[in-house]
Design a protein that fits this description.
Layout (H helix, E strand, L loop, with lengths): L1 E5 L5 E5 L5 E3 L3 H15 L5 H17 L6 E2 L2 E4 L2 E5 L8 E5 L2 E5 L5 E2 L31 H10 L9 E5 L6 H12 L13 H10 L3 E3 L7 H12 L1 E6 L7 E6 L3 E5 L7 H4 L2 E5 L9 H29 L14 H13 L4 H17 L1
């Protein structure tokens, strides 16, 4: 029923032979599937001791069988194409995104593992309206192109990820905007979580999610900001596996991230260089929350389709983008993508560059 495999860290996974879904061998999803399958075949409950022995044996078999394989969360790249896991139960469908086109494939040439909290994306609609996103996400019109570039860049695991910081007064819809952006590319049963208490919290969340998002953050201690900087460029975190031994457990990740709050929380220079800081204006005319989210859910397939249409056009234009060495910031990959997004929308690439420079100066000044 399952194919065993392992990644470069030695973590073992089980791939469903029928659906292609990949589950962590040590996770609750696979354990429940195993118990349920045993009962369906035998009409007997498996003994706890037998289950532990079986899982231990499978763990050893999976770790030493075959070559290590790359296992991805939500987003991956193979060749010149990007893939986004739709995370639909019972199949392994994914979105394939390339220069000038996108489509849905039944089986991607990459392995996606699905965490406990991950939720499915809607089936995107070609020719959809990305502009409907701003009915829910309260982002100033002159900064929307920066957020669109951030969303598209969050689908590219082969480049450093910029972070996104949403700030504003009470009543500016920061949390609503953050949740809408999260639900567009990496929906979860816990879209926004409270401020991290430890560096380990950040890396554990990054190991289970493609996008790490925190809300109502009033302050980020130095080590937390260092950890977010590592998420942007990629790096590892290790801790002792058990207090009774000296073995390490490694979490090696690169992830996009997002924070929101009333006060500025990104203050360290190293992290300031990697963040897009957007100030949300106060909402003058508020809508009922339930109606707002119903409208958003109805529009979401078209919004995702519009984002993919924009991304495909931008990726086709991207090889033609040039940036003088004097203008190259630390987020050079993001800036060049943003210039391609601007050109795909009929604007001059320098429009994006100027907006980015202005925002960068404001962020440093704050």
């Amino acid at each position: 029923n399952f194919e065993l495999l392992h990644d470069r860290n030695g973590d073992v996974y089980a791939r469903d032979a029928k659906t292609g879904e990949v589950r962590r061998l040590a996770g609750r999803q696979f354990k429940d599937r195993l118990i349920a399958g045993f009962y369906q075949k035998t009409e007997m409950a498996v003994r706890d001791q037998s289950l532990r022995e079986a899982l231990g044996t499978l763990q050893a078999l999976g770790r030493f069988h075959g070559e290590p394989q790359a296992v991805h969360v939500r987003s991956a790249k193979a060749g010149e194409k990007y893939y986004l896991d739709l995370c639909e139960p019972g199949n392994s469908r994914a979105i394939e995104l390339g220069a000038g086109h996108w489509r849905i494939v039944d089986c991607a040439p990459v392995l996606f593992v699905r965490g406990e909290a991950m939720q499915p994306l809607p089936t995107p609609v070609p020719g959809g309206k990305l502009g409907a996103l701003w009915d829910t996400a309260n982002v100033p019109p002159h900064l929307r192109i920066l957020v669109v570039a951030w969303l598209i860049d969050s689908l590219r695991p082969d480049t450093p990820y910029p972070g996104l910081e949403l700030v504003g007064e009470q009543g500016s819809g920061k949390s609503t905007a953050a949740e809408a952006l999260r639900r567009l590319i990496d929906p979860s049963s816990c879209n926004l979580r409270g401020a991290p208490k430890t560096v380990e919290d950040i890396f554990v969340a990054a190991g289970q999610n493609h996008l790490v998002a925190y809300e109502n953050v009033s302050h980020l201690a130095g080590p937390m900001q260092d950890a977010l900087a590592i998420l942007s460029t990629g790096g590892g975190y290790s801790k002792r596996q058990l207090y009774s031994n000296d073995e390490e457990h490694i979490i090696n990740v690169r992830r996009p991230w997002m924070v929101n709050g009333i006060a500025i929380s990104v203050t360290q220079q190293d992290l300031v260089d990697r963040v897009i800081s957007v100030e949300c204006p106060v909402i003058e005319e508020r809508q009922p929350s339930s109606q707002q989210w119903r409208d958003f859910d109805n529009a979401l397939p078209g919004i995702l389709g519009g984002l993919l249409d924009t991304a495909a056009k931008a990726l086709g234009i991207l090889p033609d983008m040039k940036l003088p060495a004097v203008d190259r910031p630390r987020l050079v990959e993001y800036v060049m993508l943003g210039m391609a997004v601007a050109k795909s929308a009929g604007a001059a690439p320098t429009v994006f560059l100027e907006k980015f420079k202005e925002l960068r100066a404001e962020t440093v000044a704050r």
